[in-house]
Amino acid sequence: MSIPKEPRQLMINLMYLVLTAMLALSASAEIFNAFFKLDKGNVNSGRIVESSNGDIMKAINKQADTYKTPENQQYQAKAQQVLSIVGDFVSYVDALRDTLIEVSGGMDTITNTPKGYKNQDVPTRILVGESPNPNSKGMELKRMIDNTREKLLALLPEEDKEVLAHSIPLKTEPIPEKTEKKNWADYNFYQMPVAAVLPMLSKYQVDAKASATAILNYLLKKVKGDVIIMDKYDVVVSAKKGYLLEGQKYDADIYLSAYSSQVKNMTIKVDGRSLPVKAGKAHFTETAGSIGTKKHKVVITLVNPLTKKAETYTGEFEYEVGQKSIAVAADKMNVFYVGVDNPITVSAQGIPTSQLKVSAPGLNLRHVKGSQYIVKPTKPMKEAYIMVSGGGQTAKKKFRVKRIPDPVPMMGTGPTARGGRIGSGTMRAQPGIRAELINFDFDARCKIQGFEFTYQKKRSDPVTVINSGERFNAKAKRLVNQAKPGDTYYFENIKARCPGDAAGRKIGTMVFKIK
Q: Quick check: bond before 343 cis, omega within 30?
């Protein structure tokens, strides 16, 4: 390119060159920063893989120490060799990294990065050498990678080498045929800056640790052998008693039990009788005979796949055989009342509830749920029966059906609600009278149909009105509002109607004296 003669054009060209150089420097800084991040990521990944390898080794040691067979001890020794071989390789690469960093100027304590991270001469001189040198550190690294891979594969049987070889990432790739580079080190490290070489080295360390993981997992499967895998779960309810009477407590342990559906060489016997084992379980069934407690002994024999020894486990279970019976009981009173819901319980021992047939001739019967029923009679009866059948058993329970007891007439509250001396203000505040069922357990309400109401004013003739319903009508209310000391109020021919009644019933009288 010719140099321009005009100063203005020369200045423009110089500015263009400076700008291009600045852009190159910026891109270079970003690239180097990416190298640092890549190397840090490799180091962190290596720590994670190394920790995982330690956990696998602990599992191998635990299994081999628990089941001390010659085969397991051999696999345990090979696992230890794997860690030793990989550990030597990682230490070698660590020393090589330290050499590159130290020769290029050491570490920057502030940025925690190599001071000479851009240096290309140090990696070339150490890893490639002049000519290049076939005995350089780079070629020594290649031989170290190849030897480490061969040592790891040598720990495997011939039949498994080919399969696991693909799972071992630690290896060197051949250089392309059409290249001017003299050897592997020249191809990979010539004129490479320190920042680019470090992540390459840490990558080989991660590959070595990952290779150890593949072989350790292989050895762990071998040292475990043909173990029993618990692959199925069942909810188990273990009760102390298989039969209860009313009022007794049901006591049981509930837990999740694991078992193997693929277990082999297992026998299950109950009282010496062998049961067929399918999918890791046996099914026991028998017909209940005589009444009483039945006890059985269980013996399970299992051949341990690791020790090849038969191990026996014993246990017992029991249940009680009772006699079928049916019982009918009223939940509130031993009598049915007309017009209300009368709850009853039908219980059957030894007979499923679904098999029971319950009837009540002449009564309204409704099934609520389970053993609960509702009886609602429509008229009084001297005798009524609840009939139950099922499971070859029958039962017949007799009940009396009565109308609801007479309610008690009341006005207001307190001790004078049924009559007596009350204040004039209290009398004037009353809206009417009501009918109350005293000590009656059922949800029922009786209504006042009407009454004869007489007002006896002091030293005057009595005044009587007929009142319909329970609330005072207009005439009765005018008499109530005249209440003064010495006056008397009479409630007579009080009639009330309760649920189930065909007509009203007389329930008594009340007298109130105004004080």
A: no
Asked whether residue 1 is domain-assigned, the answer is no
| pLDDT above 90 (res 274) | no
CA distance 4 to 2: 6
Flag whether 248 is in a domain. no
The reported pLDDT for the residue numbered 17 is 45
Buried-exposed string 445-464: b where 16+ CB fall within 10 A, e elsewhere: ebbbbbbebebbbeeeeeee
The DSSP letter of residue 471 is B
Is 485 a domain residue?
Answer: yes
Shared domain for 12 and 105, answered yes or no, is yes
Would you state the pLDDT for residue 175?
Answer: 93
- Which ranges in 350-505 belong to alpha helices (H)? 424-428, 474-480
The encoded tokens of residue 177 equal: 């045929």
Tell me the residue ranges of DSSP E strands in 240-370.
Answer: 252-259, 266-270, 273-275, 277-278, 281-282, 292-303, 310-321, 325-330, 336-337, 342-349, 357-359, 364-369
**Omega before residue 123 within 30° of 0, cis:** no
Total number of domains constituting the chain: 4
How high is the pLDDT of residue 409? Answer: 97
Q: Quickly count: other Cβ atoms within 10 Å of residue 184's Cβ.
A: 21
Are the beta carbons of 491 and 511 closer than 8 angstroms?
A: yes
Going by C-alpha positions, the residue among 263, 264, 265, 275 that lies closest to residue 299 is 275
Q: Which two tokens stand for residue 502?
A: 């065909």
For residues 144 and 220, state if they share a domain. Answer: yes
Residue 152 CA to residue 219 CA, distance in Å, equals: 12
Beta bridge partners of 323: none
**pLDDT tier at 127, thresholds 50, 70, 90:** very high
**Which of 262-271, 276-285, 378-387 has maximum average pLDDT?**
378-387
CA angle 355, 361, 362 (to 5 degrees): 145
pLDDT at 145 over 90: yes
Task: Identify whether the C-beta of residue 339 lies closer than 8 Å to the C-beta of residue 443.
Answer: no
CATH number at residue 390: 2.60.40.1080
Q: What does DSSP say about strands 113-114 and 107-108: parallel, antiparallel, or unpaired?
A: antiparallel
Round to whole Å and give the CA distance between 83 and 89.
Answer: 10
> Model confidence at 2, in pLDDT bands (50, 70, 90)?
very low
